[in-house]
Backbone:
């Protein structure tokens, strides 16, 4: 069995940054993730919150970063971590593949996944007009009418991207204004194909034998009406992929890991990086910084004589 100085759980920008910095410091490292290529990066059509990248596409940046980490000498295991146990000298990671990984320190950077809205018809029409990824599924709706539900950054970005493909994009969101960053709001308002319906929420997905046919919305006044649509893209928030850590490290009710100033959890030797930790800025550049900082802090922890294998 191979032992590592550091195991990084998650292959997004936070995890890959942690592994790269660990290798630069001189630690042996392994990245465990079911997919290669940068995690959620591959679903981003345009990166705006990372200085120096311009309007780079996530599906190009992600694989490039993964390649740099591979070249650094980090190992990769393309599987999922199902549990972590602490021994006297190291941590043992149980893998979905049936194997294990042993490491002296662990950086958790598993990122988040789309939170299902729980709407009537959502599950029934998932994959038949209901989607959560414009980059993945947008081409299927070329020239058609789609509804985007949500008022955050993801909804704004995806609506603008869909406008390059669909015939019309209807963006519905609660409140008078979107809560996305100003840049996203400005792009939405400047995109002719995007029509906003403020002060409204989706209440049901409508459809038939061929798939989605529309969305039922409720306005703040309580009035409900149906919008015809060929597809619906739901962006109602993200939830951390941390369920496998319940009972292992402290987390809040939403699954965000509690960390100290050094990004260390309540279990010495387990660090957290990216949007799964409490207090994260939830920006790509912040996630990369988290990963780098977690690697540095883990290296310091190991140098102080904490468990050696």
Residues:
């Amino acid at each position: 069995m191979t032992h590592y100085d550091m195991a990084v759980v998650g292959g997004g920008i936070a995890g890959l940054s942690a592994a790269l910095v660990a290798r630069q410091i001189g630690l042996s490292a392994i990245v465990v993730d079911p997919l290669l290529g940068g995690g959620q990066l591959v679903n981003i059509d345009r990166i705006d919150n990372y200085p120096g990248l311009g309007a780079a596409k996530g599906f190009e940046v992600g694989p490039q970063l993964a390649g740099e980490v591979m070249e650094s000498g980090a190992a990769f295991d393309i599987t999922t971590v199902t549990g972590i146990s602490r021994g006297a000298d190291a941590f043992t990671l149980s893998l979905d593949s049936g194997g294990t990984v042993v490491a002296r320190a662990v950086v958790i950077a598993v990122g988040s996944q789309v939170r299902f809205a729980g709407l009537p018809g959502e599950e029934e029409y998932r994959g038949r007009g209901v989607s959560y990824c414009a980059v993945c599924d947008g081409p299927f709706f070329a020239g058609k009418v789609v509804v985007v539900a949500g008022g955050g950054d993801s909804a704004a970005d995806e609506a603008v991207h869909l406008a390059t493909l669909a015939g019309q994009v209807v963006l519905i969101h609660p409140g008078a204004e979107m809560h996305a960053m100003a840049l996203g709001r400005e792009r939405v308002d400047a995109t002719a194909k995007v029509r906003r319906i403020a002060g409204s929420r989706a209440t049901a997905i409508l459809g038939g034998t061929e798939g989605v046919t529309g969305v039922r919305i409720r306005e703040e006044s309580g009035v409900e009406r149906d919008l015809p649509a060929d597809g619906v893209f739901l962006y109602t928030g993200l939830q951390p992929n941390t369920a496998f850590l319940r009972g292992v490290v402290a987390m809040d009710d939403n699954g965000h890991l509690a960390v100290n100033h050094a990004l260390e959890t309540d279990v010495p030797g387990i660090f957290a990086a990216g949007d799964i930790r409490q207090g994260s800025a939830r920006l790509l550049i912040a996630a990369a910084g988290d990963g780098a900082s977690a690697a540095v802090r883990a290296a310091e922890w190991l140098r102080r004589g904490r468990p050696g294998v």
The chain is about 25% helix and 30% strand. The longest strand covers residues 100-108. The mean pLDDT is 93.
